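User: Please fill in residues for this 325-position structure.
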């Protein structure tokens, strides 16, 4: 790794650690349900932090890297909307009070960051070592897009989670509910340590993020030009992932109550995944023909249009439905 990239990783890690520390120990040290106004404010804050970091990348590494980070961030931020629906189902299934959900999501995000780093480093290494991996990722994204386009609410079943069933079978679970144990993940009961129902919630959220990572990591890697070296590719993929994840909690509390309003968003997300998959296939063929890859701004424009159309169609449909009522 070049010295410049080494210091970029160090600086980025320091920023993320500082933000997470302030978030947990200062701004949200007490359990409470955030208000709508507070959720809007935090959503704007996290988007602003990501855009400020994007400006630094643009200034430090050039416009191509800056545009790549922005495109990857938009893709990851949009895919996180699908995560929100799943989180709503999980919290409803376990009857987790709103005041404890933020703390569970915080620790879930720490696990998600570690998993994304491992997935991204492995994916980048594979693509740069074996060129034929890229079209396989592309085909996988197209298949994922097809599945997402057929997505239905009934497909989310927390009670069937394998990790949850293993934990309930082999680990002692404390009696009582979330209101009795609060946000604690383990307690002592009858003289022995026991996990709490909240720990089971965390296990389901962490294991669910593995599925999200399998979809989102190939997508974000596919956005980044192959001419970038492995260190730069991994840095842009991971940093865009992290900034999208950091703002996920605030976005969850902002949209959890109105996620049904974005009824056509999953079609837009499916189209984005299909586009990235087709892009990876096309660029693999173009490279073999000695042709130049697609400019980054084309990816940014296509992603923006696809998401705007799906969100706009959702809002128009909701308005027409209200007028009909």
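Assistant: Residues filled in for all 325 positions:
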């Amino acid at each position: 790794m070049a010295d410049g990239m080494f210091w970029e990783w160090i600086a980025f890690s320091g920023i993320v650690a500082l933000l997470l520390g302030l978030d947990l120990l200062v701004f949200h040290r007490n359990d409470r349900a955030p208000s709508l106004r507070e959720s809007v404010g935090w959503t704007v804050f996290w988007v602003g932090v990501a855009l400020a970091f994007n400006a630094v990348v643009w200034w430090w590494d050039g416009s191509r890297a800056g545009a790549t980070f922005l495109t990857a961030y938009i893709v990851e931020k949009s895919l996180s909307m699908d995560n929100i629906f799943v989180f709503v189902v999980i919290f409803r299934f376990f009857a987790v009070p709103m005041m404890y959900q933020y703390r569970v999501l915080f620790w879930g995000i720490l696990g998600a960051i570690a998993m994304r780093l491992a997935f991204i480093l492995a994916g980048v290494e594979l693509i740069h070592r074996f060129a034929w991996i890229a079209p396989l990722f592309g085909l996988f994204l197209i298949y994922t897009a097809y599945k997402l386009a057929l997505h239905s609410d009934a497909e989310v079943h927390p009670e069937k989670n394998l990790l949850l069933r293993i934990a309930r079978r082999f680990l002692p679970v404390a009696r009582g509910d979330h209101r009795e144990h609060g946000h604690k993940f383990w307690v002592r009961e009858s003289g022995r340590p026991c996990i709490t129902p909240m720990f089971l919630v965390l296990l389901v959220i962490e294991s669910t993020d593995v599925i999200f990572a399998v979809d989102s990591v190939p997508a974000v890697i596919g956005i980044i030009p192959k001419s970038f070296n492995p260190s730069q590719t991994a840095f842009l993929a991971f940093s865009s992932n992290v900034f999208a994840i950091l703002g996920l909690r605030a976005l969850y509390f902002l949209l959890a109550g109105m996620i049904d309003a974005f009824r056509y968003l999953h079609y837009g997300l499916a189209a984005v995944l299909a586009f990235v998959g087709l892009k990876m296939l096309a660029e693999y063929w173009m490279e073999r023909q000695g042709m130049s890859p697609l400019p980054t701004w084309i990816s940014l424009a296509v992603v923006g249009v696809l998401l705007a159309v799906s969100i706009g169609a959702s809002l128009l449909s909701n308005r027409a439905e209200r007028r009909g009522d």
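For context: The longest helix spans residues 98-129.
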